[in-house]
Specification:
With 271 residues, the chain is an alpha+beta fold. It folds into 2 domains: 15-180, Up-down Bundle (Four Helix Bundle (Hemerythrin (Met), subunit A)), CATH 1.20.120.450; 182-266, Nonspecific Lipid-transfer Protein, Chain A. The protein has helices spanning 15-34, 38-41, 52-70, 82-88, 93-109, 115-129, 148-170, 178-195, 232-239, 245-250; strands spanning 138-141, 144-147, 201-205, 209-213, 227-230, 254-257. Strand 1 (138-141) and strand 2 form a beta hairpin. Helix 3 runs antiparallel to helix 7. The longest helix has 23 residues, at 148-170. The two termini are 34 Å apart.
């Protein structure tokens, strides 16, 4: 029926490329952390009362969680997808906070270990345990059973988001693996289309994603009447609450044209 919202089509991700992207972005994190002294590790972050040490511990968990679940028996059936994960993580925030504190405390208490060692161990185990194929191995993730290839997509989001947090806390310029950044942008763009289904607004995040969203008259040809455009990192920050819609528009990090091109009510997506 004309103008009826369409359910976004599920996106498929290449497992081998996603596996490599996780490893590459994690290496960028390791390189950045290797140069941090005790004072910078104790510095605050924009994540509540987390220090840089807490943030690095959480980054190690992002990869180690894959390793750990691969060592467990496979669940009988998939329960969630990467798209479901975006909206499911907020319910587990308390447990994630507890686990992060515990990992950071154990690293601080160990006389012969550092948070850099946590990252090194996680990276080595990832290379050993995460298979290049097949991608359909089921894992018991925190939010529910999911395929390995879907879980690795969520790891790209975690690593990209928290690399940005780490850069903000330390002042370092940390590179982004192109595939990891593209994967994170696409998953969060698809999550917006799922949260606000429709075809009245076109959201462009060049060069990685274009999605239609928000209920209303559907655009079919020519220039869309409602267009939002932004860069990949600004989109990541909007989708995760690191910046607000108003701030991004005021800073000209977002351009929005058309009476429906205001996404403030639909953001953030990932708590």
């Amino acid at each position: 029926m004309p103008g009826a919202p369409r359910k976004p089509r599920a996106r498929r991700y290449d497992h081998a490329r996603t596996r490599a992207a996780v490893a590459a972005q994690f290496q960028h994190v390791r390189d950045a952390v290797a140069g941090l002294d005790a004072a910078r590790l104790a510095a605050p972050t924009r994540l509540g009362d987390w220090t840089v040490t807490d943030l690095v511990a959480h980054l190690s968990m992002a990869v180690e969680s894959v390793n750990r679940t691969l060592e467990q028996p496979a669940p009988p059936a998939a329960e969630v997808t990467a798209a479901d994960w975006v909206f499911a993580t907020a319910a587990h925030a308390g447990r994630i906070e507890e686990d992060t504190r515990a990992v950071a405390a154990s690293a601080s208490a160990a006389a012969d270990a550092t948070v850099a060692d946590l990252l090194a161990r996680a990276a080595a185990r990832y290379e050993e345990l995460v298979p290049p194929a097949p991608a359909d191995r089921l894992l018991s993730a925190r939010v529910g059973a999911m395929r390995l290839d879907e879980l690795l997509v969520t790891r790209c989001v975690e690593l990209v988001v928290h690399t940005d947090d780490l850069a903000a806390a330390t002042g370092l310029e940390i590179p982004y693996d192109r595939q990891a950044l593209a994967t994170a942008v696409r998953l969060l763009a698809d999550a917006l289309a799922a949260k606000a289904p429709g075809g009245s607004v076109e959201v462009r995040i060049p060069p990685f994603a274009v999605v239609q969203c928000v209920a209303g008259p559907r655009h079919t040809r020519g220039t869309p009447p409602n267009v939002v455009e932004t860069d990949p990192l600004t989109w990541i920050r909007l989708a995760t609450g690191r910046t607000t819609w108003g701030e991004a528009v005021e800073d000209a990090a977002v351009t929005a044209s058309g009476e429906r091109a205001d996404l403030a009510a639909h953001l953030p997506l990932l708590g």
